[in-house]
Specification:
The chain is built from five helices and eleven strands; from the N terminus they run ααααβββββαββββββ. By secondary structure, the chain is an alpha+beta fold. The radius of gyration is 20 Å and the shape is globular. The longest helix is centred in the first third of the chain and has 19 residues. The chain has a single domain, classed as Aromatic compound dioxygenase (Protocatechuate 3,4-Dioxygenase, subunit A). The strands form three sheets. The chain has a five-stranded mixed sheet with strand order 3-2-7-8-9, with no helix packed on it. A four-stranded mixed sheet has the order 4-1-11-10, with no helix packed on it. The protein has a two-stranded antiparallel sheet with strand order 5-6. The protein binds 3-methylcatechol and fe (iii) ion (FE). Fe (iii) ion binds next to β7. This is Catechol 1,2-dioxygenase/chlorocatechol 1,2-dioxygenase. One of its GO terms (molecular function) is catechol 1,2-dioxygenase activity. Its cofactor is Fe(3+). It comes from Eilatimonas milleporae.
Length: about 250
């Protein structure tokens, strides 16, 4: 029997060794890299670093086999302890923001509607914060879970999110800066669709033409499936998305 753990870890180590050889990395540089990893651990930025460089690759591998809609990064700000919402997600009037209607359908891979699926949605405030994590914004704002109804339809109103700058005042931000890279993600809406008997679908949607859509620091978007052309109806922006979920094995 092959030892998969040994196979994967050995390949990772060999890949890193080859990178060091390729660039004639010196002992001094090696020590700096070593210190960087210690700093990342101490600043508790390991999840951020993984989102930045490696998580997308796992999503990419997952998407190779997928029959349903493409997955995307979950990111660090999912919360399952959120209220059930029907027509409106709570938003804070003092933040303003443009109304955004999130609507569409949940279907299975045969195109049949899926009713009673739970759709978690979460996105940034109009000033780029996530509730339940930043500035003491309560967790029941700017996020919620809704249920798909007749015909698999869902619809809920929130506000348009903005481009998001990942934490840039720690070692990860310093690395990006030193590499000459930026720390921005395009404006996005997160979704997680959950239904008994089906695989969870965790994904994100973006706005066509939005800043950083083609230059996400986390390289989150793997396909253009959920880069959505916004339409405006009665002064409200609309993000219309049909999700296809796959039966669990
Ligand atoms: C986010 O909001 C996000 O979605 C990801 C993937 C990483 C950092 C912040
Ligand atoms: Fe996010």
């Amino acid at each position: 029997m092959t030892n998969r753990l040994d196979a994967v870890v050995s390949s990772i180590v060999e890949g890193v060794r080859n990178a060091l050889r390729e660039h004639d990395v010196t002992f001094e540089e090696y020590r700096k890299g070593f210190k960087f990893m210690m700093d990342v651990a101490e600043a508790k930025e390991l999840p951020l670093l993984m989102d930045l460089f490696l998580n997308t690759t796992i999503v990419e591998i997952q998407n190779r086999q997928a029959q349903g809609s493409p997955s995307d990064l979950e990111g660090p700000y999912f919360r399952s302890d959120v209220p059930l919402v029907t027509d409106k997600i709570k938003t804070m009037p003092e933040f303003g923001g443009t109304p955004l209607v999130l609507r569409g359908h949940v279907k299975d891979t045969d195109g049949n509607p899926v009713e009673g699926a739970t759709i978690f949605v979460w996105s940034s405030t109009p000033d780029g914060k996530y509730s339940g994590f930043h500035d003491n914004i309560p967790v029941d704002y700017y996020r919620g879970k809704l249920l798909s109804g007749a015909g698999g339809a869902y619809s809920v109103e929130s506000t348009v999110p903005v481009p998001y700058q990942i934490k840039n005042n720690g070692p990860t931000g310093a690395l990006l800066e030193a590499m000459g890279r930026h720390s921005w993600r395009p404006a996005h809406v997160h979704y997680k669709i959950r239904k008994d008997g089906y695989k969870d679908l965790t994904t994100q949607a973006y706005f066509e033409g939005g800043e950083w859509v083609g230059d996400d620091c986390c390289e989150g978007k793997l396909t253009d499936d959920f880069v959505i052309a916004e339409t405006v109806e009665d002064g409200k922006h609309v993000m219309d998305i049909d999700f296809v979920i796959e039966r669990a094995a």
